[in-house]
Design brief:
Length: 332
């Protein structure tokens, strides 16, 4: 359905969103014992929240904080509140919680109620002098009190429309709730455009993005079939090409897609047809590929995993700012 036809529904969604946010602005929020740092965005997926959570978990740990992550576990089949098993089934815990648990090597607790997930974390984990919960995809989860809101902004957010006509879950005006906005280094030209939407004193962080192959493989000039099930697949394919990898064919599945045998067979046929010498996918997708699915691919060509790593342009200043917030007596 065309976006223009959905625009009236976007207006209704926007009115409901304003009423919801006005309500949360006035009500008392659920409060955990340990401080909460929310990492979120404005749109539906694709802003780099998960790599940002992984980066912050590592940096906060280096600063002396004991870190855990609270996540909804989007699309998970498991029920209730539980700790995600890094070696567990992504269908049960959600693909992003499993990816975070593996990459960040930090406890991840999943559940629809992030407050209850936080309570479970505080019961299971030992008390430490400096404890912090990272709230994954938490900008719209306003029930939970947080010490800081960190929001990743994508270039498309400036031109986007509200759901269902577009991808925006909230308008740019919601950035007034943000304590920190995060921009990709190549999008630093957006800072002046975003300035009117920010509250006084909000920090602006820049991140550098880099793709790395987990097995240090060198694919170029060998052609590869690239595939993924993420919100903005075209960005992954472009980054591969920019890294010098020859993409013979690209296959995108819907975000959070759970792979099946027939998907692997389709990819195998595609690789044979275009003469590809390898497959390449993202870390988020790799966690959903069990041994059986990988075996189907490896019978055709080796599978390589490309990880997206982030670096803060001014890491020392960013961590000093965040540590000041978390060490403040006002933090729970």
């Amino acid at each position: 359905m065309k976006a223009s036809l959905l625009a009236p529904l976007g207006a209704i969604y926007g009115a409901a969103l304003r009423a919801k946010n006005n309500c949360y602005d006035r009500r008392t929020l659920q409060r955990l014992t340990w401080p909460v740092v929310s990492v979120g965005n404005l749109s539906v997926g694709g802003a780099g929240k998960t790599p940002l959570v992984i980066l912050l978990a590592a940096l906060l740990a280096r600063e002396g904080f004991s870190v855990d992550v609270l996540s909804r576990g989007y699309g998970r089949s498991g029920r209730g509140i539980e700790r995600a098993d890094a070696a567990g089934d992504p269908r049960r815990f959600g693909d992003e919680p499993v990816m975070i648990a593996r990459a960040a090597k930090t406890p991840v607790f999943v559940g629809a109620s992030r407050y209850q997930a936080g309570l479970l974390a505080e019961r299971q984990l030992a008390m430490a002098p400096r404890r912090v919960h990272l709230l994954d995809d938490g900008f719209q989860h306003r029930q939970l009190q947080r010490a800081a809101d960190i929001v990743a902004v994508h270039r498309d957010d400036l031109e986007g429309r509200l759901l269902p006509a577009g991808r925006l879950r909230e308008p740019l005006g919601s950035l007034r709730r943000a304590d920190v906005i995060v921009l990709r280094e190549e999008d630093s030209d957006l800072e002046d455009q975003l300035a009117p939407y920010l509250k006084p004193g909000a920090s602006r962080w820049r991140v550098r993005r880099r793709l790395t192959l987990a097995d240090n493989a060198i694919l170029s000039p060998r052609p590869a079939v690239a595939f993924c099930a993420i919100a903005r697949p075209e960005e992954f394919f472009r980054m591969l090409q920019a890294a010098g990898i020859t993409v013979a064919a690209a296959k995108a599945f819907r975000d959070h897609h759970h792979y099946r045998r027939n998907d692997m067979e389709t990819l195998g046929k595609l690789a044979r047809h275009c003469g590809a010498a390898a497959f390449i996918t993202t870390e988020k997708d790799a966690v959903k590929l069990n041994a059986g699915l990988r075996e189907i691919l490896s019978a055709v060509a080796p599978l390589h995993v490309a990880g997206l790593t982030l670096e803060l342009a001014d890491e020392a200043a960013a961590m000093a700012r965040l540590a000041t917030i978390l060490d403040s007596p006002a933090s729970p």
